[in-house]
Design a protein that fits this description.
alpha/beta; TIM Barrel; Lyase, Ornithine Decarboxylase, Chain A, domain 1; 2 domains; eight-stranded parallel β-barrel; six-stranded antiparallel beta barrel; 11 helices
């Protein structure tokens, strides 16, 4: 028999979350961001839930080819652009839109001389200071790109550093509008946080990522309460052992947790080799939450490679074989991430290949009966 751990990807939840994006930015077209293998969910698994998007944003050419193989005929955007001159013919072959963020990429286009027309998104650095032309350089870069016979449409693009924090985005929008003033072309500005909270940034295109998968851009579930997002990934397992503790007994490596009363704990078939965060807290006042038979309880002790332990005090009827939800429906992934000193993004992306994953489909007669993917 296989270990009881498994993940479920919920296509109906992904489709719902795309509709949440459209309600918040009704005048914009949507690049659904599926980088990092759709934030760990799997491009093939999420594709049906995102068919209603206007385009897909990703990083790797291989991911773009995979989308074409799945039958997607619409726009695909390479968010970091291309990396070598030999990549340029593939832009034409697979009809890809590419970000252009530096002089070296412009030079590669000039050298490759594709037939075109290529759709590009010219990236402006408005303060994130990762990729993009400085505002003082942007107009010259645009003129250089515009002069290339191989370049067709040019969309103005930037990325926000503080759309989910008190500093906000006003300074970046001002820099963007100043640098692109009187230049023709559409604009693409909004990440997930800007989609939800900054309608002034909803230009021709928006680029949602994490909210498509049901998590909060801030890492705090309370910040998206009432928005209507649904978790797209659930991680489940079972209890494989039960232990009775006496006061003074410790749990796990390093004896980080010490029982202060008689306790009953459960051992769960899940550990950091499955993608559960090793730094999830199982001691002190802020322990990571877990559901056992649908009842919320907490970790005890340190997460190990293949197992973790939970307090069965709130669920006295639990026994070997009882169901466990590590995150997902009924338990926001952001709550687990906060107790682990990270964000939901990382937990999604960290799901290990050894975890069997099924898909709750949109078209199946019984979506509660997941299909192996």
């Amino acid at each position: 028999m296989p270990r009881p751990i498994h993940a479920v990807i919920h296509q109906p939840a992904i489709a719902n979350n795309l509709e949440v994006v459209r309600r918040h930015a009704p005048g914009s077209r949507v690049w659904a961001v599926i980088k990092a293998n759709a934030y760990g969910h799997g491009i093939r698994r999420v594709f049906a839930g995102l068919r209603g998007t206007d385009g897909f944003g990703l990083l790797d050419l291989n991911e773009a080819v995979q989308l074409r193989d799945l039958g997607w005929q619409g726009p695909i955007l390479l968010l970091e652009g291309f990396f070598q001159p030999q990549d340029v013919p593939l832009l034409e072959q697979y009809r890809l839109t590419t970000a252009v963020h530096c002089d070296e990429q412009l030079r590669m286009l000039e050298i490759a001389r594709p037939k075109g027309p290529l759709a590009i998104q010219l990236k402006l650095n408005t303060g994130m200071n990762r990729l993009g032309f400085q505002p003082s350089q942007y107009r010259a870069a645009w003129e250089r790109a515009r002069a290339m016979p191989c370049v067709g449409s040019i969309v103005h693009m930037t990325h926000f550093s503080d759309a989910d924090s008190p500093r906000g985005i006003a300074h970046q929008i001002e820099a963007f509008d100043t640098a692109t003033a009187n230049l023709p072309g559409e604009a693409s500005l909004s990440n997930s946080a800007a989609v939800l909270w900054h309608p002034e940034a909803h230009r021709a295109w928006v680029r949602p990522g994490v909210i498509l998968y049901g998590a909060s851009p801030t890492g705090r579930e309370a910040d998206v309460a009432g928005v209507g997002l649904q978790p797209a990934m659930s991680l489940h397992s079972e209890l494989i052992a039960v232990q009775d503790l006496q006061p003074g007994d410790t749990v796990g490596y390093g004896s980080m947790f010490t029982a202060d009363r008689p306790m009953r704990i459960g051992v769960v078939a899940c550990g950091y080799a499955d993608g559960y965060p090793r730094h999830a807290t199982g001691w002190g006042e802020h322990r990571a939450p877990v559901l056992v038979d649908g009842v919320r309880t907490e970790l005890v002790g340190r997460v190990s490679m293949d197992m973790l332990c939970v307090d069965l005090g709130p669920c006295p009827k639990a026994r070997i074989g009882s169901s466990v939800t590590l995150w997902g429906q009924g338990l926001p992934i952001d709550d687990v991430a906060q107790a682990s000193g990270t964000v939901g993004y990382e937990l999604m992306c960290a799901l290990a290949p050894r975890v069997p994953t099924t898909v709750a489909t949109i078209t199946a007669p019984d979506s509660a009966s997941p299909l192996l993917a």
